[in-house]
Amino acid sequence: MLFNRKRLNLVDGERQAMRNACKFNASLLDLVRENLRPGLTTDEIDQLIASRTAEAGHKSASLGYCGQQSSPFPKSCCTSVNDVICHGVPGPYALKDGDIINVDLTTIVNGWHGDSSETFIVGTPSDLARRVVQCAHDALWAAIDTCRPNSRLSEIGEAIVRIAKRSGFTVVEEYVGHGVGRQYHQPPTVPHYPTAEARRQKLEPGICFTIEPMLNTGTKETLLSKRDGWTVRTQDGGLSAQFEHTVMVTETGVEVLTLSKTGPQRGHKF
Ligand code: MF3
Ligand code: CO
Ligand code: CO
Predict the structure, then answer these.
(1) CATH of the domain at 246
(2) How many domains does the chain have?
(3) CA-based nearest residue to 141, from 249, 4, 264
(4) What is the pLDDT of residue 175?
(5) pLDDT per residue over 50-95, tens digit each?
(6) Residue 266 lies inside a defined structural domain of this protein
(7) What number does the ligand 1 atom closest to the CA of 75 have?
(8) Residue 270: inside a domain, yes or no?
(9) Looking at ligand 1, which atom is closest to the CA of residue 244?
């Protein structure tokens, strides 16, 4: 049994509510995609997301979120450029040709959370940048493909590490996927590398969680910004790429709830 708290296994109405939240969240990544160009600032990305969310009458879960940090997150999405692994704070930075930028956002729709992220390529990337983005996307999908009733949670991390290693990239360990639903972050913890704990856990129909591997071109070690308390960079300045989907285990397999209309689908070539 994966959870003591049975209510983590969603029933029909709750599953539909999660689908709705995730679908809206994914549509915001399509909005970013339509507007992405060199010169766009990360603050402008945040404004696009904040206003579309408000128009729809929903709420960003990231705005004011505290987590383990000392100060609340000040924006409606995370924008993580080049060597930023995750939790980059939108600001005056203007995107340049060749940048890679992960936009990670979470929306609360009728009390349910949809969480997803995508790494966008601005203009023409270096070969290394393109390869790490490709590999992060391939790793996410290899992980998704392990999910089914009774599969082990550790199969996710095993798949991600296998895909990263064959391209010579590393997998960040400090930041992990998570259960998601009524809460932004709830059990289970979903490590992107195999752990003893994950080996003991089996997936069950009705559970929802994120998979969000961060792959680095150099060291997997991270550095938290002292300046803003949120931005996480690679210790060596190497590039980092990430993709995130919210998934739901069903009676027969797995449903990817945060697929967007125009975003990369399974097997996408960058
Ligand atoms: N969306 C991130 C995740 O995938 C969490 C960001 S927390 C924030 O779990 F406060 F930085 F937004
Ligand atoms: Co996220
Ligand atoms: Co997440």
Answers:
(1) 3.90.230.10
(2) 1
(3) 264
(4) 98
(5) 999 999 999 999 999 998 777 999 999 999 999 999 999 999 999 9
(6) no
(7) 12
(8) no
(9) 4
